[in-house]
Design brief:
Layout: H1 2-15, E1 21-25, E2 32-33, H2 36-41, E3 42-52, E4 55-64, E5 70-79, E6 94-98, E7 103-109, E8 117-124
Antiparallel strand pairs: 1-2, 1-8, 3-4, 4-7, 5-6, 5-8
């Protein structure tokens, strides 16, 4: 019986995936860390916004803090002047292979002129 319990616990551990990561917002200077493990591997810097016509363009630099490749995903979410997500459900996770020590700039432009701020979230790649 004890063997079955151990095997079941190992099975559950293998099926769970950590989806927490790190985030940065264009209107807040500090990095939000939801996973200290991910924070030791990657950082987000140069979080900037600018207008391209009447649309907000988000940009940030993902920085590898380790010497080996990291398979990550990032998502940029846009917010209106009231802090409400603009077009919820339309942003998707984008895969990225961040090489050891690499500094990778990423950009994305909002689809609507109502966007005034953004958040970029980075996590380890999952099978989603």
């Amino acid at each position: 019986m004890r063997v079955l319990v151990v095997l079941f616990a190992l099975f559950l551990t293998g099926c769970s995936s950590i989806t927490a990561g790190v985030a940065a917002r264009s209107d807040q200077p500090q990095l939000r860390i939801d996973s200290s493990t991910v924070a030791r591997e990657v950082s987000i810097e140069k979080v900037q916004k600018r207008r391209v016509g009447d649309l907000l363009q988000a940009s940030a630099t993902l920085i590898s803090r380790v010497s080996t490749d990291r398979y990550l995903q990032y998502k940029i979410t846009f917010f209106d002047i009231d802090g409400v997500v603009v077009e919820p459900g339309t942003s998707s996770w984008r895969p990225v292979n961040l090489h050891g020590g690499e500094r990778l700039p990423v950009t994305q432009t909002a689809r609507t002129p109502q966007a005034v701020e953004f958040e970029i979230y980075v996590r380890r790649a999952t099978d989603e």
